[in-house]
Design goal:
InterPro entries: ArsR-like_HTH, GAF-like_dom_sf, HTH_MetabolicPath_Reg, Tscrpt_reg_IclR_C, Tscrpt_reg_IclR_N, WH-like_DNA-bd_sf, WH_DNA-bd_sf. Residues 6-67 form the HTH iclR-type domain. Keywords: DNA-binding, Transcription, Transcription regulation. The chain is elongated. The protein is an alpha+beta fold. It has helices at 7-20, 28-35, 39-51, 68-73, 76-95, 138-148, 198-213, and strands at 55-57, 63-65, 98-105, 108-115, 131-133, 158-161, 168-174, 183-190. The chain has two domains: 5-64, Winged helix-like DNA-binding domain superfamily/Winged helix DNA-binding domain (Arc Repressor Mutant, subunit A), CATH 1.10.10; 71-211, GAF domain (Beta-Lactamase, 2-Layer Sandwich). The chain has a six-stranded antiparallel β-sheet with strand order 5-4-3-8-7-6. 41% of the residues lie in helices and 21% in strands.
């Protein structure tokens, strides 16, 4: 801690991070031990966070992340989209295919940014807000692959054919090393197969987006 920082705010944020990392919630005693502070301090932190709906406590007294974080989370998409657009534009123009940034939303893959190429005679129409199951399509499959290879610096890219739209194929690579963001960058095109150079180019774009978000 420095003179410019708030110890109380720091502890409150640490509480939220600890709760976000568990599916079962934490008791006051567990939080006290993890934070290295007494139980009275933890009670005060939880009471303040509860007032803002950032924390909730169940009947057993275990604290969990509250629904208030969802309202904050909705503001993340525009920031992520803005950071990703330069790399997506470059990717779309270079490949001549529709480029997209996809993030995890529950059990779905949600397209939050889409850029279509300007010079092609035709391309796949793909809109921000489009969602599909994570286990269908290159964007979702790339994310699932990254989960399976959690310790890998480079999970590679994923190619699919006709899983979301007949006659369309896709390539996507996951965002790696971006804390709090789980997603992928990819392209979708009308073709019998993804050209050989597309996969590595998508992987480069995913790295660019990840760098912009760090």
């Amino acid at each position: 801690m420095t003179a410019e920082t708030s110890q109380t705010l720091d502890r409150g944020l640490r509480v939220l991070k600890l709760l976000a990392d568990t599916d079962h919630g934490l008791t006051v005693t567990e939080l006290s031990n993890k934070l290295g502070v007494n139980r009275t301090v933890v009670y005060r932190l939880l009471a303040t966070l509860e007032q803002h709906s950032l924390v909730r406590r169940d009947l057993g007294g275990r604290a969990r992340v509250g629904l208030g974080v969802l309202r904050l989370g909705r503001q993340v998409h525009p920031l992520v989209r803005e950071a990703a657009l330069p790399a997506l534009r470059s990717l779309a123009e270079d490949i001549g295919a529709t480029a997209h940034l996809t993030l995890v939303d529950g059990a779905d893959a949600l397209a939050v940014a889409v850029v279509e190429p300007t010079w092609t005679d035709y391309h796949v129409a793909y809109r921000a807000g489009f969602r599909h199951a994570l286990d269908r399509g290159a964007a979702g499959r790339a994310i699932l692959t990254a989960r399976q290879k959690a310790l890998a610096d480079d999970p590679g890219y994923t190619l699919t054919q006709g899983e979301l739209e007949a006659g369309a194929c896709g390539a996507a690579a996951p965002l790696v090393g971006v804390s709090g963001v789980e997603g992928s960058v990819g392209v979708v095109m009308l073709a019998d197969a993804v050209p050989e150079r597309v996969g590595p180019r998508v992987l480069d774009a995913a790295r660019e987006v990840a760098d912009a978000l760090r």
